[in-house]
Design a protein that fits this description.
Layout lengths: L2 E4 L9 H4 L3 H5 L8 E5 L1 H9 L4 E7 L3 H14 L9 E5 L1 H4 L12 E5 L6 H6 L7 E6 L4 H13 L4 E5 L8 H6 L9 E4 L1 H14 L3 E5 L6 E2 L3 H4 L4 E6 L7 H6 L2 E4 L11 H12 L6
Parallel strand pairs: 1-4, 3-4, 6-7, 6-11, 7-8, 9-11, 9-12, 10-12
Antiparallel strand pairs: 2-5, 3-5
Helix pairs in contact: 3-4, 7-12
Amino acid sequence: MHNLIYLKDLTGPDLDPYVRLNEAQLFHALEPKPGLFIAESPKVIERALRAGYQPASLLIEEKVLDRDLADLDHEMLVNQTKGLGQTPIYVVSSEMIRQLAGYNLLRGALAAMYRVQRPSLANFLATMPSDHPRVAVLESVVNPTNVGAIFRSAAALGIDGVIITSDSADPLYRRASRVSMGTVFQVPWTYVDAKVWQAKGIDLLHQFGYQSAAMALRHNTVNIDDPQLDKVEKLAIILGSEGPGLKEKTIAESDFTIKIPMATGVDSLNVAAASALAFWELGNRKNK
């Protein structure tokens, strides 16, 4: 049985995560503990549950209640995921849901979920596969859509983990997790403080046996299909933000700079598109 709570308005404090707190406020809501985030749609919610995230509550529009609960129950049954138990499920009318910012983009149920403590960089790298690991590093990638798309490509194309500088967009922001189709809960990832990364990020990778490949255009750039890259036992693929790209220090200290060969007159791709091609070539795909 589900714990359904039918509401007549959106004034209750339990609805703050959905109505009155922005994503930055949700991030800090439970300090010093990790905060909250919003997962959107039954598919994304189920993948979060499967990954071990705990829900604080759900919010569902009444007209799609049966559909969304059926989808959630089915996914959890198929994937042997723990059910919702007595988690509060707030049910609201279509008129009330229109009061939410961005309601036109909603894809069904919303869930306020508890964040988990991310591992240190050392502990994170220690969990990577021992054979031919491939990780991606996102340096100052501030667009949530790009972050979500990169995670989706990482999940599909054999990237073992993602390291994100703290000045990048949060993978658990609604837009990022929605674009990723919930793969932000599938691919292991952690943060590295942006200042720490700039001071000694490449050195830290080297300490754990990783060589780094910075995606950038320089005189010594090699193509992503260069055979020497496949021979590297542990490889970190570093991607930068739109426009500025990677910082000069990151490029200068990396073991390789790599590029995607382009047709005449075009010098680069969007970082999400570039990541897909790089991961296709350098990731641990089963059919490679």
